[in-house]
Automatic annotation (TrEMBL):
Keyword match Transmembrane helix: yes
One Pfam family, short name: SSF
Domain of life: Bacteria
Keyword Membrane: yes
Membrane topology value: Multi-pass membrane protein
Membrane-spanning residues: 24-41, 47-66, 87-113, 119-140, 160-182, 194-213, 225-243, 390-412, 424-445, 511-540, 560-578, 584-608, 615-633, 653-680
Keywords from the UniProt entry: Membrane, Transmembrane, Transmembrane helix, Transport
Compartments where found: Membrane
Gene3D superfamilies: Sodium/glucose cotransporter
CDD domains the UniProt entry points to: SLC5sbd_u4
Protein name: Cation acetate symporter
Family: Belongs to the sodium:solute symporter (SSF) (TC 2.A.21) family.
Length: 702
């Protein structure tokens, strides 16, 4: 990889690109050989843990080697990779930066659980890049500089817009990076045998070596390598699974056949007597939880007395120590306050009601939205509610894509505006390769679960269920609700973050394929985490420390401060990720809503409306952040508990919109406030207007 880190050198741009092509071709061939060698080792009896450990640590060492080779203290290299990344490679790096743990790990799982509704992510994320190409990327590249707060400070004038931009960049990127580090913990813990918390910090080492030593220069060339890994690791297993299920290795072509088979199996499961027994049992549990909510103090006393009697009974009977300890933990975990108990009983009622529905609460896969518009009149409000949330989520994801600081910063790294536009096209090509495959993966896994797992005796369940449950019990849960000893679909609860990572095991493919998927998921999480941590540390070191606090410091000091801050932020994000506050997809979608409501109005109006001024920018960005954050805090379960929100959830929802799409309220509020404040206060100065003229000038040197 020496040519990658050495720059254009004396042989010029063409020579530099030829060396890049050669280096990454050799890398791809070496990757194929490595996977082949591990497959052969598995056939000769190499243990699963050793396979997983070797493949994961092998790729992390590779990323670290690139990071070491590309280390730098030069400001232009550290912040924007010297502005010499060709469009093709910037497209690969941007797609790796983009295809985070949510895309790689969470997207197929969401489609598995939500069916048609999950396509909102595919539409929103892909469509957002059209906005990036048309409205933002070329103008930021023509502006130059290093960061998004740089643009806000120059366009709107003064320190205040820059400071608000710093706050927004840190908030958005921190929420996003927590999701990536959580994904790293899941993968490392499952495939190496480390504990979840240890897995987080082991994976974090790979992130830090790249971004800490070489900044954007190291991150860029590492992300190109990660793009190759994650595309191969996603497409190859799905093609194999498609061939196994349908006889066709092209999953997009096989989808129609598989969807028909899944729909027929869904009809059988809905009518199955065992499934109906499970639904009735969950309905009874929901009724019990509802009764507890009618008299919370009495329910608390009854639960505590029952738990105490169980501990005493097991102790007197000299039961095994593990059973006694489990009973004591259950007693200790009972709620101690009425508010805590009311929240717990409400959650129990809601989950039991959801699981009492057909297909374990999942909608039929081919059904548009959550209710049938041609069904009974009673179902139509639910369909309208689902349609509204679908459109709101698409809106937030599209505008959030066009406002993510770590993605927009990548367009500073290309040699020209033309290359910036071209790199968006290459980015879309690589992203579509994954996004057009994710719906097929969800269907194929559902086919395997419905036909290969449902109906299995509980004493013959595959080992992957226990293995993943040890990593995180929320990923997969099974319980013999109706007591017949046979696993029904309603007795199996799979988390969205499990589907992609466990797909090869669910389908019975060789374990090396599972490890390859894990390597791809790790690449996706690490590549995005690199970009996000760099965005946060650069915002604090370049925009706050250098631009505001101490502008006279040399660039080497600025880079050193950035590295220290990067380490601090990484450790803080790892700590928050270890708390497991929400699934990956919610955290990522929350970051998109925050980005859409803070950055998108300020960037778009800053380019296309000369009248937009400092006070409009500051007021609009703060309004968007506050409205979106408030809505999430009052409607997302973990945040409601954190802030002590006791008001019923139904009373906190606006128009029935889920917290994942909170930006649908923040974006309009930000636009309105920005427009009104800009019109009510003096015009921006001549420098701001000249900047707008320059970046909108169609001439290459305009």
């Amino acid at each position: 990889m020496s040519s990658v880190g050495s720059g254009a050198g004396g042989s010029g741009v063409r020579g530099f690109r030829r060396r890049l092509h050669g280096a990454y071709l050799l890398y791809t061939l070496a990757l194929a050989g490595f996977i082949g060698a591990m497959a052969a080792a598995e056939r000769f009896g190499l243990g699963r843990n050793l396979i997983g450990l070797t493949m994961l640590l092998g790729t992390v060492v590779l990323y670290a080697a690139i990071g070491l080779r590309c280390r730098t203290s030069d400001a232009a290299e550290y912040y924007v990779a010297g502005r010499r990344v060709p469009a093709f490679y910037n497209g690969m790096a941007t797609s790796a930066d983009w295809m985070s743990a949510a895309s790689f790990i969470g997207l197929a799982g969401t489609l598995y659980l939500s069916g048609y509704n999950g396509l909102a992510f595919v539409i929103g994320w892909t469509g957002g890049f059209c906005l990036v190409a048309l409205l933002i990327a070329p103008y930021l590249r023509k502006f130059g500089e290093y960061t998004i707060p740089d643009f806000l400070g120059a366009r709107y004038g003064g320190t205040l817009p820059r400071l608000v931009g710093i706050v927004a960049a840190v908030v958005v990127s921190f929420v996003y990076v927590v999701a990536q580090i959580y994904g790293v913990g899941l993968i490392v813990a499952r495939f190496t045998g480390f504990g979840f918390e240890i897995g987080i910090f082991v994976g974090l080492g790979g992130v830090l070596v790249c971004s800490f030593l070489g900044g954007m220069r190291a991150v860029t060339w590492t992300q190109v390598a990660q793009c190759i890994i994650l595309v191969v690791a996603y497409l190859a297993p799905v093609a194999w699974l498609s061939l196994k299920v349908s006889g066709n290795p092209v999953p997009q072509v096989a989808m129609g056949q598989v969807l028909q088979a899944v729909s027929e199996r869904e009809a059988q499961l809905v009518a199955d007597p065992g499934e109906r027994e499970v639904m009735a049992a969950y309905a009874q549990r929901a009724a019990v939880a509802g009764a507890k909510l009618l008299d919370v103090p009495a329910a608390m006393a009854e639960d505590r007395a029952a738990a105490q009697r169980r501990v005493e009974r097991l102790t007197e009977a000299a039961a095994p120590l593990a059973e006694v300890q489990a009973a004591r933990r259950t007693l200790a975990a009972l709620p101690r306050t009425e508010d805590e108990a009311r929240r717990l009983y409400g959650e129990e009622q809601a989950s039991a009601e959801a699981w009492s529905q057909p297909l374990g609460g999942m909608p039929p896969h081919a059904q548009a939205f959550a209710a049938n518009p041609r069904g009974a009149p009673a179902s139509r409000p639910g369909e309208e509610h689902s349609r509204r949330n679908f459109l709101a989520l698409v809106f937030c994801l599209m505008l959030g894509t066009a406002g993510l600081p770590h993605i927009l910063t990548r367009f500073y790294t290309t040699p020209s505006v033309r290359e910036a536009r071209r790199s968006v096209g290459w980015t879309l090509l690589f992203i579509c390769a994954l996004y057009l495959t994710a719906p097929a993966l969800a269907l194929l896994v559902k086919h395997e679960v419905f036909n290969g797992l449902v109906g299995t005796p509980f004493d013959s369940l595959p080992s992957w269920i226990a293995s993943w449950s040890k990593v995180d019990p929320s990923l997969v849960q099974v319980s013999d609700v109706n007591g017949d000893g046979i696993l029904q679909l309603g007795e199996l609860h799979i988390g969205a973050d499990l589907v992609t990572l466990a797909a090869p095991e669910i389908a019975g493919l060789p374990y090396v394929i599972s490890a390859m998927v894990a390597v791809g998921g790790l690449a996706a999480a690490l590549s995005t985490a690199d970009g996000l941590l760099l965005t946060i540390s650069n915002a604090l070191s370049h925009d706050l420390y250098y631009r505001v606090i101490d502008p006279k410091r040399p660039s080497s000091r600025r880079v050193a401060v950035s590295k220290v801050l990067l380490l601090v932020v990484a450790l803080a994000a790892a700590y928050v990720a270890s708390m497991r506050i929400a699934d990956i997809l919610f955290l990522v979608a929350a970051a998109f809503s925050l980005a859409a409501s803070s950055f998108f109005p300020a960037l778009v109006l800053g380019v296309f409306w000369k009248r937009a001024n400092r006070w409009g920018c500051v007021g609009g960005m703060l309004t968007g952040l506050v409205v979106t954050s408030y809505y999430m805090a009052t409607t997302q379960p973990w945040l409601r508990g954190l802030f002590g929100v006791t008001q019923p959830l139904e009373d906190c929802l606006w128009l029935g919109i889920a917290p994942i799409a909170a930006g649908v309220f923040g974006v309009p509020a930000a636009f309105v406030v920005m427009l009104l404040l800009s019109l009510a206060t003096p015009r921006p100065d001549g420098a701001s207007e000249r900047l707008v003229d320059r970046i909108r000038d169609p001439r290459p040197g305009g």
